[in-house]
């Protein structure tokens, strides 16, 4: 069996190549610097994975779809699923959309989550692919493409939006990050680390996540409305209004409030012992 990763010379491709090799596949990769073209790879491999930036995904799928047959499996590693999966279904191949919910810097797939969107695949084909990831310790979550994109509008879109707003607020305030270190609380340190982590990466990735997911605008509209409501409550200086806002959200999170406290306590304990 041959597995081909288009974009396999990139960081995510280099992470997954040995995963498939350990599963017994011969792995081929194509990229901007390889002699092997995307089409050549697609013609040779039983499993073809598109692992390119979101804004390049449709072009690559359209490029290789004409040469694929019903005996092949076509997948992608894109952070969006509705549009890429629909594009892959124009081929004759079996189709399973994939989204690894982690970056290429992880040491292994152990305890990492991969979203799996089976669009057109026999049960044995799906199970065979899932076994590759599960054998590495990954947790696979089955989803439809639309459900995936709706959840990513929150899990990724909302999270990255709020993180970028924090970064931009600090910049606009003219605050020197190094100066804040003498005043750093553990929670601020954690929040600032998330800001630094995001800003150390490729801006085009986050632009695609925020600008190309059709469900993000609704989420951000609610986020900005919530921020405006909280701002008004803060301006009133009315503790009762603030308590109502606060407790309505703590009730919604329920038992996760305690779980979040335990997790951040563990992070803080780790940080202070370094």
Please tally the β strands and state the result: 7
Instruction: Pick out the low-confidence regions.
Output: none
Query: What is the CATH topology assignment of the largest domain?
Result: Rossmann fold
Q: What is the CATH class name of the largest domain?
A: Alpha Beta
Beta percentage is: 5-15%
Spell out the CATH superfamily of the largest domain: NAD(P)-binding Rossmann-like Domain
Query: How many distinct domains?
Result: 2
Q: What is the H/E order?
A: EHEHEHEHEEHEHHHHHHH
Q: Strand order across the biggest sheet?
A: 2-1-3-4-5-6-7
Q: First CA to last CA: what distance?
A: 46 Å
Helix and strand composition category = alpha/beta
Per CATH, the architecture of the largest domain is 3-Layer(aba) Sandwich
Average pLDDT value? 96
Percent of residues in helices: 55-70%
Radius of gyration: 22 Å
Number of helices: 12
List the helices and strands and how they pair.
Elements: E1 2-6, H1 11-22, E2 26-30, H2 38-44, E3 47-50, H3 54-64, E4 73-76, H4 82-88, E5 94-100, E6 113-120, H5 123-134, E7 139-142, H6 145-172, H7 177-180, H8 186-199, H9 203-212, H10 216-236, H11 239-253, H12 256-272
Parallel strand pairs: 1-2, 1-3, 3-4, 4-5, 6-7
Antiparallel strand pairs: 5-6
